[in-house]
Amino acid sequence: MNGKLVIIAGPSGSGKTTIVRHLLGIYPRLAFSISACSRNKREGEMDGEDYYFLSAEQFKDKIEKGEFLEWEQVYPGSYYGTLRSEVERLWQADRDVIFDIDVKGAMNLKKHYPDNSITIFIQPPSLEALQERLSKRKTETPEFFEQRIKKAAEEISYSDQFDKIILNNNLENAYKEAEGLVGLFISK
Length: 188
Ligand code: 5GP
Description:
4-stranded mixed sheet, binds guanosine-5'-monophosphate
């Protein structure tokens, strides 16, 4: 039987990953959908935990075989996608699935499962705040940093297509709002 999909998106640096982790700690029904991606592993990341890290060739091979529910070239040369097998694995274990994906991926997943998904956009207070958070994170080279800021502006323009928007100008408040929305949705 299909479980539910809690689809969280928002620009890099909006705090969405922190919010997703928080929700996973609050609701044991939720399980994280581990995406496949072709970018390099960052320090501290684990294959099969943060992502399934693939080469671009391996990723393209899986696209051709139809193994993805959705995939995007989120940044030039970097592919990210949700494997059908991942979602099926979690549903078989009787879990609801939570996703941390980009805005287009979010819209595509919702199209596959309109009746049992909720899309939530995490809105940063401003582009300036986002720039500051991303520069503190220091995970990106200057070139990738620029790419992420450009992409963030594009992502924000999709926010009105989401079921719900959470403004993250205070993390505690954002946690509470997310808990409320998601708790209600998975208990329905
Ligand atoms: P990062 O490189 O910071 O881990 O992720 C970059 C972006 O790719 C983030 O916006 C993240 O949410 C998105 N992303 C991660 N997994 C997926 C996925 O499976 N599909 C899509 N479309 N985007 C993803």
